[in-house]
Write a structure and sequence with these properties.
The chain is an alpha/beta fold and 353 residues long. The chain has helices spanning 10-36, 38-46, 48-60, 62-65, 79-86, 100-110, 151-161, 185-199, 207-216, 245-249, and strands at 69-73, 91-95, 117-120, 133-138, 162-169, 172-180, 218-221, 233-239, 251-258, 263-276, 280-283, 295-306, 311-320, 328-336, 342-348. α5 links the parallel β1 (69-73) and β2 (91-95). The longest helix has 27 residues, at 10-36. The radius of gyration is 23 Å and the shape is elongated. Bound molecules: S-adenosylmethionine. It comes from Patella caerulea.
């Protein structure tokens, strides 16, 4: 992604590009250092909803895997590669850029699968394979589906390594949004009223600022179903076999909700699903069992009241942040019935709560 404008002279542009390149490399280094740590892999393996969805998808589709070659993009501990061999894969290329790859080698040996799983310790963008593969498996999803921007690497791998009639596991991803009431929102503001009782000084003037602070931070949490105030609306869906890079680099969609009943809207929640062949779906919906992704909550600045059938419409744009492309810029525009449009912007970076 280019960060400079046409008006910048070539030499300045080169300098800018070098800086951005160094920044990007540093960010990637931090990213892979994070995945070199055991804790994140423990969290993923503890998430049985996630891991069993992949296990079921691979084992139930054993006819697709039997005798075939597979590329596991971002193998981590190698768990998905092991499932692929259990399903009968002839050869799995397990590409992992972080230092975890050293441990993956040990795990593969422990399972006596060295002859079938080849660990390649580099970024998939830098890998060379001696053949094209029949299947790509990858667990690339981040919070709000696109946080981390790993899907770009998976599509890169698809275009370079997947046979024309090959399969993607998963092969579809979708993102949903719904308006919510947040029962904890008022509690969070209470302190600015309570200061008077506690210490006999007033801090009520902080309330508008506190609201702004709440609305700026993206919260990762499992919300109670009762908070949801209308049916969800799909804002993004991608066929991973055919989607282009540009389609996944900018999500832009309108939404419209009809509210269930009387409540206060404090924000919006997003969740995602990924689908595999043979009707297997992994969902992070608030209506099903918790996963380590939870849901993503975007609080608005000025909560508003709704009644049954109040309409909320608007649009959402999600794209990688220009200078830190693994993070996301989110712009949410919303309007109640014929009211004024409100615009909320969020940076989904490491300061998630
Ligand atoms: C979400 S984890 C999944 C790990 C494992 N497949 C699992 O399901 O438990 C993603 C892994 O992909 C690796 N990864 C991300 N981008 C990569 C890239 N471009 N090339 C190679 N590995 C990558 C990360 O280091 C991380 O270990």
């Amino acid at each position: 992604m280019s960060i400079f404008h046409r008006s910048i002279k070539p030499d300045t542009a080169t300098k800018e590009s070098e800086i951005s390149q160094t920044k990007k490399q540093k960010m990637d280094a931090d990213y892979f250092e994070n995945y070199g740590d055991i804790a994140i892999h423990e969290e993923m393996l503890r998430d049985k909803i996630r891991t069993n969805a992949y296990r079921m998808a691979i084992l139930k589709n054993y006819k697709k895997f039997y005798g075939k070659t597979v590329l596991d993009v971002g193998a981590g501990t190698g768990i998905l590669s092991l499932f692929c061999v259990q399903a009968g894969a002839k050869k799995v290329y397990a590409i992992e850029a972080s230092e975890m790859a050293e441990q993956t080698r040990r795990i593969v040996k422990e399972n006596e699968m060295e002859e079938r799983i080849e660990i390649i310790n580099c970024k998939v963008e830098e890998a060379e394979l001696s053949e094209k593969v029949d299947i790509i498996v990858s667990e690339w999803m981040g919070y709000n589906l696109l946080y981390e921007s790993m899907l770009e690497s998976v599509l890169f791998a698809r275009d370079k390594f997947l046979k024309k009639d090959g399969h993607m596991f998963p092969d579809r991803a979708s993102l949903y949004i719904a308006p919510i009431t947040d029962d904890d929102y008022t509690d969070r503001l209470c302190i600015w009223n309570d200061v008077e009782d506690f210490y006999k000084v007033s801090m009520k003037s902080m309330i508008p600022y506190a609201r702004r602070c709440i609305s700026k931070t993206v919260q990762i949490m499992c919300i109670p179903q009762e908070w949801i105030q209308s049916h969800g609306c799909q804002i993004f869906t991608s066929n991973l076999k055919t989607s282009s890079l540009s389609e996944i680099q900018k999500v832009q969609s309108n939404f419209e909700f009809k509210c269930f009943g009387h409540s206060t809207i404090h924000g919006f929640v997003t969740w995602f699903t990924v689908e595999f062949p043979d009707d297997i779906t992994l969902t992070t919906s608030p209506y099903t069992d918790e996963t380590h992704w939870s849901q993503t909550v975007l609080h608005i600045r000025d909560p508003f009241n709704v009644e049954q059938d109040t309409t909320i419409n608007g649009s959402i744009t999600i794209k990688p942040n220009d200078s830190k492309p693994r993070f996301l810029d989110i712009c949410l525009v919303h309007k109640k019935d014929d009211g004024h449009e409100k615009i909320e912007t969020f940076l989904m970076d490491e300061h998630l709560t």
